[in-house]
Amino acid sequence: MGKLLAVLTAATVAAGVCANAQAQQKLVVAGYGGSFEDIMRKDIFPPFAKQHGVELDYVAGNSTNTVARLQAQKSNQQIDVAIIDDGPMYQAIALGFCAPIQGLPANDLYGTARYKDDKAVAIGIVATGIMYNKKVFEERKWAPPTSWKDLKDPKYKKQLVVPPLNNTYGLHALVEYAREGGGGEKNIDPGFKTFKDEIGPNVLVYEPSPGKMTELFSSGQAAIAVWGSGRVKAFADTGFPVGFVYPREGAYALLSSVCPVAKANANPLAQAFVNYLVSPPVQEKLASAYGYGPVNKLAKVADDPRVPLPIGKRADALIVIDWDTVNQNREDWNKRWTREIER
């Protein structure tokens, strides 16, 4: 009986080890949808999958969705690697969802890319600015926008698209108008007032979906929008006549960031994948295919004549918002936004 039990135990352990080995051959990555997902699946995943003999699963969603998933799976995390915008990433770190990154090539990375205790790292710099349809502007003999103030112009009535406040692009716009009105992150009231009185009447829709945003432009319903340089570049790559402007008051910095999810028995390939994302070849690919400003100094990147990339002086001049203040207030702001702006 003892011998049989020992054999059964050994078989169970062996089965467990085997199952564990199989389980480790899958890596679940959560990140943005739309053109970003296409690039990840087509260009970024295959070399890593081949090198490590791993299957990569992709869970698409915006940053807020991904943080919500991490919270919902708290006791049993399914996600191995999370790609999230900087604001929600600060929340994910505060909630204990991110493990420190091991082996980061610190000397090769720009300081802006680093997070405290290396619990996350930026994989790309995006500028939040103004996108417009060049063809429509030329046909109507409109000058290209140059300022955040231009979005108040009544000629854009029901042709402006702004992502909602739970999206970083929308948040940047609110902070900009708060600053313009003498406030800022610590006094957001002037931003709400400007949206209600001057921006709102021009807004066709507060749209969070990248696919829907490009659809609104393609169908001719929208002519101007607040959006990110990476998204605009991907749209321009489809052949659409779209332009992107760094407003004279300043464009805002959005750091697309990544962290290995903190969990028991974490797959070591999660760490390897995070380091892979900041390597020069991947950084170059994300710049050329998605318009990210690189975070690795060794990445060689050419500018794009259609959509100026956030590199060099443009990257240096980007405005970084006070995320600590924003995250303390964001839930209240979101409720207020739903009540006052997106009624």
UniProtKB/TrEMBL annotation:
The keyword Signal applies. Keywords: Signal. Pfam families: SBP_bac_8. One of its GO terms (biological process) is thiamine transport. InterPro entries: SBP (IPR006059). GO terms for molecular function: thiamine binding; thiamine pyrophosphate binding. GO terms for cellular component: outer membrane-bounded periplasmic space. Residues 1-23 form the signal peptide. It comes from the Bacteria. The keyword Signal applies. This is Branched-chain amino acid ABC transporter substrate-binding protein. The lineage of its organism: Bacteria, Pseudomonadati, Pseudomonadota, Betaproteobacteria, Burkholderiales.
